Amino acid sequence: MLNKRLLSAWALGIPASYIAIGFLDAYYRSAIGIALVSIILHVVVSLFAYFTLGRLAEKFRAHPMDASILLGLGISIIVFFAGLANMASRFPRQFDVSAYAHATETLTGFLVGIAAAFLLSMWFVTRAHRRDFRRSRFYRFVDSNLGGLVLAALFFSVYFLLASIFNQPIFRFDDIFFDTDSKLYRMRFGTEHYQDYYERTVHPYVLIIVRPWVWMISLFLKGDMLYGAFIVTALTGALCVFLVWYFVKETTRNPLYASLIAALFGASTSQLAFGSLIENYIFLGAAALIFIVLLLKDKPLHMLVVAGLVSFGITISNIAQTVIAHFMVKRSIPQLIKYGLIVGALVIPLNLLNNFIYPKAHPYLWEVSTLQYEEKNVFEPTLQRANYLGRVMLLHSFVSPDPLLLKEDIPFLKVWMFRAALKKVPLQIARYETHLGNALVTAWLGFVAIGGFLFLKNVPRQDNRFPFAFILTCLFFFALHMRYGRDVFLYSVNWTYAITLFLALAWRELSGKRWFQFSLLGFIFLLMLNNSRLILIMLWASYMHLR
To answer: Tag placement on the chain: N or C end, fewer CB within 10 Å?
Structure first.
């Protein structure tokens, strides 16, 4: 008997597979190769869609309103992706739509592959209904985390689309977007030129953390490390969305609420920018969230040490947020000392290992004289800087303003959110110039005020370990960037997750209220609409120099 749900899942997955295989036919040019890739990929897509449709049908039977909100959320993200793709297609120099279309000689292989995928999917579905498979760790993980995986997959599509636009080699200068060193890290992660030409010690073993993942992905792209770096960056952004979903689901026991919070986080300005631009910051955000989840699940010390070593290896200052979270959640001085000693003992060997594998990648940790390079990023703290920094942290990291467009020392317009006072030019900040942007800021401040009120009201009768950890993390980075940073939005991944999770915990008592759920859903939809304007401005600004 024909499985109608599987047939629907197979058909619904065809557009996603068509786009993905259209991208991959640049690497797999033969009809047989495309057919094999199409079978594998479309089986995965079909099975994922099959289980998602099944879960959604169950949800509609048991909780039709919850299911309607989740369906509306998913459709909103798909529309967001489609809108961004349509917007980018107007700029063919930055985004080549034909790269995702099938060549004539591979279309037949694709059609044969997806047809065969249906038959193979039927066999897998039969196997999946067996009791032994349902008891497997893989099935139980997917079954219990399906909502977060769907959201992560949807946002991966968004981030990869943006990554394939704004990381192209035509952007041949650093500092174009938000003071990022995207050219440097595109070379360090995606080419054989891995040396840090700025000679900095503050990223002591970032290469052995990131490049192996890029290399593994590149194996499926015929050795293309550049697009491997695009995929790894987007996957890390999607992982951050999943980890936010997981934390909220585990702490509130409300998967619908977790999906709304994760979508809010995924559509934030910070995630859209750094889930796609090649830099080291999205990896810092993922490391911090992994550390938080490990604390939540009360994992053993050695796992915390690994996460802490990753944070330190990417950027040395980020060990601070792991120390703050460890102390506030565990509340054990002896264990914190043990954690610090183990991490401290291992950073030098890992630094040596990094430069052994990648000779002369950057100076060693003990070559402190190279830190003089960072002096150009240090500024006097002022009340105006505090005001602007607070606005970037609380507002711009979530709701995008119209960015600054700066014509300075490179033949590109710089697209920044914040510009420190340099060369007698006053401090500048991006502003909200549209009615939608101003309305969303007002609504966001209302959400924040509600969260602050509920947190203070419930302080005496709730577990405040994680909320206080998030507050102290934000205060630490506020203090650090009062002195450090030309465009402080560059560091927004360090606090966006903390603010999101703090508010998610503060709003917990409203999480089951329909008015609040619909308010979040509406805000998320409008947030994606508003933040797509930032992408349009980035496209226009670069088009001026690429046409």
So the answer is: N
- What pLDDT, on a 0 to 100 scale, did the predictor assign at position 425? 80
Phi, psi (rounded to 5 degrees) for 419: -130, 115
DSSP code of 403?
A: P
Task: Give me the residues paired with residue 31 across strands.
Answer: none
Among 196, 176, 385, which Cα is nearest to 280's?
196
Cα 476 to Cα 193, 257, 308, 317, 325: the distances in Å are: 34, 28, 17, 10, 12
Quote the CA–CA distance of 507 and 130 in Å, as a whole number: 40
Tokens 């010390």 identify what position? 301
Dihedral over alpha carbons 486, 488, 493, 497 (to 10 degrees): 170
What's the pLDDT at 1? 64
Return the axis-axis angle of helices 146-166 and 255-266, rounded to nearest 10°. 10
Give me the residue label for tokens 């943006």: 162
Which of 284, 291, 286, 339 has its CA nearest to residue 314? Answer: 284
pLDDT at 199: 86
* Nearest by Cα to 290 from 306, 266, 271, 273: 306
The number of angstroms, rounded, from the C-alpha of 278 to the middle of its chain's C-alpha atoms is 11
Burial class (CB in 10 A: 0-12, 13-18, 19+), 456: exposed
Element at 165 (helix H, strand E): helix 146-166
Instruction: Give me the residues of the chain with pLDDT under 70, please.
Output: 1, 547
What letter represents residue 457's amino acid? Answer: K
